[in-house]
Amino acid sequence: MSGVGAVSSFHKRGKARVVSIPGARPSVHNSQLLLSTGMPSLDHLLGGGLPVGSILLVEQDRHDVYSKLFLKYYLAEGVMSGHMLTLASLDESPQTLMATLPASTDREVDEDSATTTDQQMTIAWRYQSQSAPPASLASANRFSHNFDLLGTMEEDQVAKVDTCLFDGSEVESAASTGYYWPLLQQIERRIADGGLSTACNKAKTNVMRLAVHGLASPLWGWEFSRLEKDHQWHRLTTFLYGLRALVRSSFSVCMVTVPSHLFHDMALLRRLQALADFVVRLESFQGSDKETNPIFKDYHGLFHVVKLAAINTLVPPLLDATDWVFKLRRRRMVIERLHLPPELSETVSRSQEDTLTKPNTLACMGDKLPRNLEF
Amino acid sequence: MAAVVTRTVLDRLVSLKESPAPRLLLLTDTVEVCGRGLLYCLVCAHLRAGTHVLYLTTSFNPVELRQHIKDDDTAGKIEFYDGATDPCGWDSGESAECVTKSLPEVMRSRCKAGGKVAVVVDRLEHLMLHQDSGQLVRGLHTLARESEVEQVVVYCGRDVVCEDMLEAVTHLASGVLHLRHTQPCSCAVLVRKTSGKVIKAQEEFSLTPDFRVQGVKPTQNTGQVGVPADTSASSDPTPESLLAATTFSLSLTDEQRRAKNELLLPHTRVQTEGGQILYTPDQEDDWDEDDPDDDLDI
């Protein structure tokens, strides 16, 4: 790097192959276009991000506390990148969801320069004369943004984004037609208006983020209580199939949260899982006996990765661990590998002087070894 | 984020001190224990607080109910919707509207006197006989979201109503009270706040003749939310507790702190004076001031 603040002068010859969609980047495994879900740890589990044209199904925890946070991260990421948003929610008013998005912690670029000039460095004084490093990319072009759960995103920032909210109030005679078909039609209209369909030859400059909150809850329909033998699930499964078709044939991603603890017949859950591309399940420890288990004392719930998609590939990105947990810190939520706490009980280390007490036998030895042969 | 409950949740719930009050409150009982007393407690608490109560009754006559619930000296007044006398219309020829039409429509037709309103649905299972379950659940949800409605209390028997209806209403409700058949009477409380916090508790209580709840305390037996197992690191270690735990003395007295601040670090001298090269020649060095390049002849 020569000069102060100069970026490298090398440029690739020819037109860049990267599609210029804000907030998207090609995957390192295959060259699919990925979008961030708003949580870097979830992005890592999905293999870098959510591929454009896929559906992420999130099975809610019992009280829908943490899955709502997942949804808010997803929507907030869409707002920061300027994507088109479509949110459908019957349980909770979509206006409330959009009004309580977490605030972004990325400071604007021009605020940095004023603060660094007047500080006298005492220990690293040799670097005083060096200038500040070049400013990072503008926030709209970054892949994944940082959010702070204690703050709320400002309304004017949310208002800058093209949003469509579906809360079922415009659907007349909901008892006979249900909400599924009108929602599909609304999504199709949005795709057509934004020119996002893959059939349309226009160069795409934006993607759409779809979010459906609480699908298959009692307000959407009564499918959760029917058994398979009653053949009453087709509205819900056809809806998800239609949603998948719309998302596949357009530049959009979708996140659907489902209260799977209500389902009487697990076969319905299997069908929904088969229709979605990525499936994760949240199991929170609130009120269960796992809350008092010392293994889980630092965490708030288990995070199960049920299904990972292999879109245009043979194998999905492999995870190196199978037990994941999520933890809600004050400012953000993270998903981590489950580490067992160290075994600190007294029986593990024996005192060498005390030969009278029977030592804890190792797993490889039986009880029958004489005492003077102990290691 | 469930809390280990030390204050009584039931007390706050019934005396309406819980804020924000749960919009949809489900109260269930069984054949063995009757929850009607607790229901009347809630109604009287609303009346005393000045909220008008709209009471949809399907089992008892309004006349009989007025003998128990008195609104003469309270700020709020109670209004009954009679779904108990003749719901199917065998005598009058028309079925009662309050049980066949959806709940928001029934409540909307009431002439608005202004002010907050609490809605009580007595016996959900009787309403289910006249309406479709999906429509009923949607009606409850819409009603709970209206701005003038402060609380919707739904009373049902959990051994009578079908499972999926109970699960559906529990999923939508922000407060659930399940009465248990124990001696003394106790209930399992679940409150779901809008901030995301979930509070669960099991508490026993008793009722006074004028429908107040008294003597609430958590139950002592196995149902209570347990204290997490005691491990060596019980809470996040703060710097002070870490300092107290080590055998080194890491803290500074004032005098030591002053001496530390005044200490001249070697790099500050260099900073002020600039760098210098100090060279002392050895014995073997031939220190010659001349420049050896002088005798170059170019």
Automatic annotation (TrEMBL), chain B:
GO terms for cellular component: cytosol; elongator holoenzyme complex; nucleus. Its main location: cytoplasm. It comes from the Eukaryota. Residues 216-240, 271-298 are annotated as: Disordered. The keyword tRNA processing applies. It is found in: Cytoplasm; Nucleus. InterPro entries: Elp5 (IPR019519), P-loop_NTPase (IPR027417). Keywords: Cytoplasm, Nucleus, tRNA processing. GO terms for biological process: tRNA wobble uridine modification. Residues 282-298 have a biased composition (Acidic residues). Gene3D superfamilies: P-loop containing nucleotide triphosphate hydrolases (3.40.50.300). Pathway: tRNA modification; 5-methoxycarbonylmethyl-2-thiouridine-tRNA biosynthesis. One of its GO terms (molecular function) is tRNA binding. Belongs to the ELP5 family. This is Elongator complex protein 5.
